[in-house]
Each structure stands twice: as structure tokens, then as C-alpha cells.
Amino acid sequence: MIDEMLLKYGLTNAPSILPMLDDFSDEREVREYCWQVLRTYPDLTKEDWIIGIEGGDYIYSFGGNYIFITDDIWSFNLVASQAVLDLLVERIRQV
């Protein structure tokens, strides 16, 4: 199911933001900063999702770009094209 979502939105081989923010203390900190930055985009839209008891997997869009987010009680990850990751990391570091 997740593979189908990634394929549908062109994110099958998209890299993760986590290695780009390896100087952050843990995934909780990355989660907080990612959501803080993402919420600044007025056109942020949830496009697709799979919800579980502990969290879910989501496709969001903003500015014509798609991102895939895994957000549950154990982990957080965000994958997107390298250009989108570069933009988000730059904004996160400014915060």
C-alpha cells in the first residue's frame, strides 16, 4: 500500500530528510521542526493517507511538490525530492 502511494506521487526513490539533519538530537526533534516549517505553507494539503492505531503514513503537497511522511509513536520520517528536502532543511535551520 505504501509502495503504491510512493509510486503514485513520484516518490519511490525519494531520499529521507533524516540524514540531512543528523546533527539534531532525535526524530522527535526533527518531527517538531518539520511540522513547524510545513505549517507555514498556506497551501499544505493532505493528499493521501494510511492511518493505523499508533500513527500513519501521509502524502502532503505544497507549492506543487509532494512529500511522504511517516509519523507514529515510534518514529518520524519525511521523504521528498532532493530539491524539496534542500528547501525544508534550509528553513528548518533558520528556525
TrEMBL record:
Recorded superkingdom: Bacteria
UniProt source species: Pedobacter panaciterrae
Name by which UniProt lists this protein: SUKH-3 immunity protein of toxin-antitoxin system
